[in-house]
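INTERNAL AUDIT FORM
Audit reference: QA-55
Scope: verify that the stored structure record matches its stored sequence.
Auditor: D.O.
Record contents follow.
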Amino acid sequence: MCNNCKETNQPENTTAINAAVELKEASDAVKRIHSAISDKGLTYYIETYGCQMNEHDSENIAGMLVRCGYTKADCKETADFILFNTCCVREHAELRTFGNVGFVKELKQKNPRLILGVCGCMMQQKQVAKKLFDRFPFVDMVFGTHELKNFPLLLEQVFNNRRILRVDDSAGEVIEGLPAEREPGFSTFVNIMYGCDNFCTYCIVPYVRGRERSRSPENIIAEVRQVVNDGYIEVTLLGQNVNSYNYDGVRFPELLKRVNDEVRGLKRLRFMTSHPKDLSDELIDAMASLDKVCKHIHLPVQSGSDRILRLMNRKYTSADYYALVDKLRTRVKDVEITTDIIVGFPQETEEDFNATCALVRNVGYSNAYTFAYSPREGTVAARMDGQIPLEEKKRRLNALNAVLAETLPAGNEKYIGYEGDILVEGVDHRGEPLLFGKLSNFKMVYVKGDESLVGTVVPVKVDGLRFNSLQGHIIE
């Protein structure tokens, strides 16, 4: 590593830190550098991979860039700063990232002033970050997930002709005061916590996002109130496992109630993701009783086999999961459940796989995100015996998706004649233009209507089915 490149470890600190003052000082320094090197405004482009947490991190980075005097570019080719925010959960993520970074070398040759950066979960893995940093000397800055608050400081150092590699192992901080540059619209995300303590054997997240840290209710409510004042009417509260939210004894159901009751102008309140082992009766009651909380829950089951669930370290059985589904459907009117499922986990037998298919048929999900298992370096599952051949994993994935295709229409037919409100999200121009939007329980409905209704809540009646969704009309 060159002398100008820094890789630091900092002591663990579990307190909340307000970064506003340091951000202003660093942002002002970057602005001064801008004015010295350019008589025109500089632009940025961020390419984000992975989950909603990554999307929100990119919004924070964009907010800091705007504070530093940047404006958003339409494409990479016209940007003065390009950042790749990486994911390490999806299969072949490293290969994809390295390929995309290599592609922009030509842009750097055309524009030597161009700054290139790579961040995100993949860069929190020290060996991967170092590998990328060494392989691509034209990359100016590489930093992990725990360096978000330091981004303007790192950018300032790059302007001072330093290449930066920063991967911080500590993860005890909850950072407040970061600006966010959100995409215009009507729906947005607000983080309520960071990290994960579950250590599922297939998952890399606890190693790259750190242990669980919850934000204070006051800071969460203030941010929700701010985005509503900015025009957003639907907010999704984000966490790797929102059910385990705990700030000085305030648990997630109480947080939901406070946001529901205290934020005027908010129309819909969603949350994700929920771990089944932490789904409490109190949370189910909150879903049933709070008027803004949507009647949908994403409840990843991962497998229908108790043996595989033990190998995954999920800490519940299929019977536990069925009991939760029964509670939800008994106590929350019109509730719909979506899920995540992994097939081809190490040592999964045909009997285990059939148990998963049976669970899918019995539960009747409104949607499911299905994956063939792929090993993540550093996880327990990657070291397990009995890895399943790729072709067999593909076969099981196709078979599971066929089961889902059978069950989805039956779950939709019960909605014919149903009346409810949708938040109109856009216009589908395939064939006759139709508005589309979701009911509170996440069911998609297509209706005829004027494009001016996008971003508003309208009452509809369901008349029939449209592919895996519903079709109806606006109630006048």
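Auditor finding: record pair retrieved intact. Residues 390-413 form the longest helix (24 residues).
Action required: none
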